[in-house]
Amino acid sequence: MKFPDKWIYYDKEKEYKYPELIDEILKQKPNIWIKKSPIKDGPISPRLGYEGSIAYDTVNNLLIRHGGHNQGGGGQQGFETWTYDLRTGKWTLMYPNTSPPGTCCSRNNIFDEADGEFIRFPGFSGNHGWQWSRRIFNVESSVWTYNLRKNKWINRAPLPSVNIGPARAAAYDSDNQIILVYNVHESSRTAAYDPYSNEWTLLNPEKEPPAKMHYNPGMSMTYDSENRLFVLIGSGDGNDPRTFLYDIKKNEWKDAKPDKNPTYHNADPLISYDKKNKICLSVVQNREENCLETWAYDTKKNIWKKMDTEKEPDPTKDRQRQLCYAPDQNLFVLENRYSSGIHRISEQQIWTYKYADNEEEKIEPPKDLKIITEKNRINLEWKKASNSSYNVYHGIGEKPWLVEFRKIASVKENKFVHEKPKRDKINFYYVTSIDPENKESRPSLKIRAQPRIITDIVVSILDKNNVEIKWDFEEKDILGYNVYRAETEFKGDYIKGIYDFEKINKKLIKENSFVDKSNLDKIFAYRICAVNKLEVEGGPSPFFLTIPSPPVYVFSKEDGERCMLKWKKNPEKNIIGYNIYRTKYNKFDDEHDKINKKLIKENHFIDENAKKGMPSEPSNTGRRYYITAVDKLGQESFPSAPVWYRREWHKFYKLGVWHQ
Q1: What average pLDDT score do residues 17-30 get?
Q2: How many CB atoms lie within 10 A of CB 273?
Q3: pLDDT confidence band for 16 (50 / 70 / 90)
Q4: What is the pLDDT of residues 535-545, one digit of tens each?
Q5: CA 64, CA 84: separation in Å to the nearest integer?
Q6: Is 456-545 in the same CATH topology as 367-441?
Q7: Residue 172: which residues within 8 A CB-CB, separation 6 or more?
Q8: Is 428 left (phi over 0), alpha (psi -120 to 50) or beta?
Q9: How many angstroms separate the CA atoms of 428 and 418, rounded?
Q10: Alpha carbon distance 193, 42 (integer Å)
Q11: In angstroms, how far is the first alpha carbon of the chain from the final one?
C-alpha cells in the first residue's frame, strides 16, 4: 500500500514568472524588506493563519512551518507541517508518519542544526475546536521533533520533563548545541534541553527576568554566537521594553539596560541573529504610528539602532509575525499575517531582509564528523577539506555548556585516534581547518563519545506474562543495551502518571531485543539506552507502553458522500484489529463516535455515511477521523493523528485525493 509524502502547493497549469525574479531576489539590497509571497505572477500561498511557528532548516535550506490557526484566523489549531522554498516561492504540505497535537501561540520553536531536526514545544491545544482531549493529553509532551529528510515526527517524551508555557522564548545555542527556554513553569523559569541526550536541565539562576514577560506583550530570544550570550527582549508590564542577556556558562541573567530599547508598547517583539554580520535584528510593532520597525542590536556595545529602512513590511497585529534567519542566503525571513480592506482580506506574507552584504567564509570548518569508540580509544574521522591541515580539540563534562576545550593534536590527515581517553566522563570533540597561511577556521559541529538516543522501538504483548521489546539502532560501536521499566497510572483512557524507571536487565543485552517476563496486571513503560565500547551510556529513549502504539501514515480520500481511509499496519505482534472514530462537529471534545460495529481486521475502511448528518454548506464544514489499534488483551492504543473529510477551508486544499 502506497502513501504520498507531500503535496506541492501550486497550480501546475499556470506558468509562473517567479524564477525570472530569482536574480533580483538573490541580489537583494541591504536595509530593505522585500515581499516574496504572495506576489503577482508568483506561486499561490496557502494563506495559513497566525500563531504558528517557523524555523529555517539549514540542512535542506527550506523554511519549516508548523501549527497555528487555519485560513480563517482564529479557527482550529493546526497540526500541519509545511515547507517554503525562498528560491522558488513554492509552499509544500508534507504528509509525515504522524503529527503532534495542533497548537496555537506556538512561536519560538527551533531548528537543531547539529541533528538537522525541527524541535517543537507545546502551545495551546484544544480550546479552538476540532481536537480530542484523549489524544492531546496522552501524546502531548515537552518535545516533539521533525526530520524533513525522513519526513518523520517523533515524540521524544523526555522524562523527567518540564512544564513549558505557550508563547515562551527559546533559542538554539550553536556552540553547545542545546536549546534554552525561558517561561518554564517550574522552580526555575530558565531551562535547557539537550536534543542529543533527550534531557532537560532546570538551571536555577540566582535572578531571572520578570515572570510577566510572556504572551501579551510577548517576548523573544536569540543566541549571539559571537559573544556567546542569549539575548531576550520583552516587557514586564507592556510599557517598559527591556533587553536581558544570559550567560549559560556562568548561569547568569543580566538586565543590559541599553540607552534605548526598540519602540513598542504592549506589542510582542521579535528577534533573530545574523551569523554572518554578527548582529541581532528585531522587528517590532509601533502602535502609535501603526507600522512595523526594524532595529539592530550590537550585543558587545550594548547599543540598539533603529534602521532607516527603504521599505518596512505591512503592519500587523500581535502574534501575527515570526522571524528567523537563513544563513545560506544571508537573509532574515519574516512571516507576516496581514489583513486589509473593508472585508479584512488576509495574506500570509513572506518578507526577507538583508542587514549587509557579506563575503563567504574563506576557510570552512570540517564537516561530517564521525566517532567510533573502542575499549581504550576513540577514533575520529571527518570529510577531507582541500589544502587544509587540522586542529583537534577535546573536553570532558556532564553538560555540553560546562565543557572546557583544549587543543590536543594537530594533524594533516582527516582522522585522529585519541588513546586512553577518560572513561568515567563524556568526551567531547571539535575540529578546525588550518589553511596554508596558518589561518584557522571556526569550530566544526561538536561531537561526543556517547551513543545517540534510540527512537525506533516496538513493544509487543506476547501473552499476560511476556513482553517483547525490539529496537533498531544504526551505530556500530555498541557494546550492548540497558532496558528500563516504570509503572504507570491510568484513569480510564487517560495516562495520569509514569513513575521512576528502573533497570531490569542484570547484564548488558547484546541483541536488539529483550523479553520481559512480567505479570501484566498493569500498563508498563519502557526505555532503552545504548552503551558504547567505552561503557558510556546514551541518553534515555522516548518511553513506549505495553499498549499498542497509535497507527501512523493515516490518510483519507473523499469519494462523493463516502470517506475512504487507509493506514499502515501496526508493528506490534498480536494486533487483532482497529477502531475508527469520527467527529460530529468542530467543537473541542465534541462527540467522537466509534463508527465500526466490529473490529476492522484490515488497514483500510470506507465510511459510507461520511456526509450524513453534516450541516449543509458553508464550505468550512468537515469531519475528522481517528484510528486506534487493539491487541489480543483488548488494550486499545491512543488515537492516531486525525485526517479530514471535506476539511475546513477546503478551497485552499485538494479534495478527492489521498491526504491527511
Answers
A1: 64
A2: 26
A3: very low
A4: 999 999 999 99
A5: 7
A6: yes
A7: 110, 111, 112, 113, 178, 179, 223
A8: beta
A9: 11
A10: 39
A11: 16
- Bridge partners, 321 (sequence order): 336
State the Cα–Cα distance between residues 642 and 659, nearest whole angstrom.
11
**pLDDT: is 257 or 289 the higher one?**
257
Burial 500-533 (b: 16+ CB within 10 A, else e): ebeeeeeeebeebebebeeebeeebbbbbbbbbb
Question: Going by C-beta distance under 8 Å and a sequence separation of 6 or more, which residues neighbour residue 564?
Answer: 556, 557, 558, 604, 605, 606
Domain boundaries, the chain: 33-353, 367-441, 456-545, 555-652
Note the pLDDT of residue 617: 57
| Residue 18 φ/ψ, nearest 5 degrees | -55, -45
> Which listed CATH number (2.40.70.10, 2.60.40.10, 3.40.50.720, 3.40.50.1110) goes with 456-545?
2.60.40.10
The three cell numbers locating residue 125:
491545544
Q: Count Cα atoms within 13 angstroms, Cβ side, for 312.
A: 19
In the predicted structure, residue 83 carries a pLDDT above the cut 50: yes
Question: Using the 8-state DSSP alphabet, how is residue 551 labeled?
Answer: P
Is-cis flag, bond preceding 38, omega within 30?
yes
Closest of 563, 649, 657, 653 to residue 606, by C-alpha: 563
pTM beyond 0.70, yes or no: yes
For residue 442, which of 330, 299, 278, 280 has the smallest C-alpha distance? 278
What stretch of H or E contains 24?
helix 22-26
Per-residue pLDDT at 265 exceeds 90? no
The class (CATH top level) of 367-441 is mainly beta
Minimal CA–CA distance to 266: which of 215, 320, 216? 216
Which pLDDT belongs to residue 592? 82
Q: Other C-beta atoms within 10 Å of 468: how many? A: 16
CB-based contacts of 337, cutoff 8 Å, min separation 6: 49, 50, 316, 320, 321, 346, 347, 348, 349
Q: Tell me: pLDDT of 304 over 60.
A: yes
Contact by Cβ (8 Å): 409, 395: no
CB atoms within 10 A of CB 259: 7
* Angle CA 324–279–204, to nearest 5: 75
Q: Reply yes or no on whether the pLDDT at 589 is more than 70.
A: no
Q: What is the mean pLDDT of the chain?
A: 90
What CATH number does the domain located at 555-652 have? Answer: 2.60.40.10
CATH of domain 33-353: 2.120.10.80
